[in-house]
Amino acid sequence: MNVTHIPFKKTGFFSKTMLDYLAQKEAIKPFYTNFSDVEGFRNQIEEKKQSFSLETRKILSEALQSQYSDFTATEKTKDNINLLQHENTFTITTGHQLNLFTGPLYFLYKIVSAINLCEELTKQYPKQNFVPVYWMATEDHDFDEINYFNFDGKKVQWNREDGGAVGRFSTKGLEAVYKVFSNHLGNSKNAQYLKSLFSEAYLKHQNLAQATRYIANELFGKYGLVIVDGDDYALKTVFTPYIKEELENKTAFKTVSKTILALEKEYKIQVNPREINLFYLGNNFRERIVYEGGVYKVNNTDITFTKKVILEELAKNPKAFSPNVILRPLYQEVILPNLCYIGGGGEQAYWLELKTFFDAVKVPFPILLLRNSVQVISSKQKQKLDKLNISLEEIFLNQNKLLSKKVIENANIKVDFDKKILFLEQQFSELKKVAKQTDASFIGAVEAQEIKQIKGLENLQKRLIRAEKRRQKDLVERISKLQNELLPNQSLEERQRNFSEYYLEYGSSFIASLKTALKPLQLEFTILEL
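The structure corresponding to this sequence follows.
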């Protein structure tokens, strides 16, 4: 195994928001509190220690013991659940939807990042305990986002009627999906494990939340991973004061809207708040709560509440109140002694909208950490890259740019058009100095001629590249094929492939390799050669 780290910027797949955050640019500093470094974690520990009560710790630990009651947790996970009652224990949290069979590869990268960060922090702060947490997005209701995974270029999909929180969905009907998937796997030892993992999870558990907990525990339980289901009466009870605040004062809408006005001057806005950022959750539906004409209404239903009645409903039935994307981060931070949230670029971008809201409700804003990203390269693919003289950084170039670069490098005719264009610009710069001593019409003529000459050179360059691509057809095809293998659909493979493809080839050593390779605080993209 060889591991190479390159800056996230070099891949071309990360937003200005994330690159500026990683660089700690001044423009983005107002939108977070502590950064993910030694000093940042020291500050976060002190802030969370002072604000998180022993009473909440007790409720959390007991709720988790209940969630695991019909489930075989590892001893390390049991120990971690008990440790959560102690004031020197803190969590590192990542979250993900309940994608079928974990969905895209980065599900694994998120969790390994959380586990490895806990181990790093234990070395830095030996008097504290650090627990890795996977927050299951059990209350989400967008089934189309989670009902499939990709395997070997094919979509393995679960078709069923949509409706309500996905964590409550019955696993009935997944027998058919299992048959389709198992037919693709073959009969190797690793294939047998994948078949067993799928069937044990989905054919022997009643709902999607239980099945997902089983898979995550099977893959990561030995590292002490604690899996949290927020669709829980006791945990919602802890969050009740904040739900009441949302219903009565619309604090999230007011504060986040102001933050967006400041943030959008430099950065793309990821999500927008609603006046009320809550859903009402029934057995087969999850619909927005809206406030109209002095009455609280549940969208697309006949359910309505007066203020008095909705607060009574909250008191007796807190599980029915489900936070949306704006309020869910607050729910997490209220019920967990959490220091850091690990997520992808899109997730972190919407967290950056929330700091002022957290300040307003007096909850510590967590450290944000961009999850590890990985490109897996086989030894055979690395040999091909070397033969084609393609560096690890060049893998991520736009395919047209990569092909143009390589055919020019391999061309018999060596013409450096960039140098010629630079030479032209220098010549016209001299002409412009002369033109300034005459009149405006001459300056205009010089500038027009400069544009024309440079455009002509650029067109000649394009024609030469097209001609070389035709002449070097074999090289073009080999490079295109290899890059398409590494970056399916010209996207990072972690967003396209499922872990089962690599598990089928490498078995448990694949996860062991990730565990060794991923360095969460290094803040760089990982290339893993297996």
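The two ends are 5 Å apart (CA to CA).
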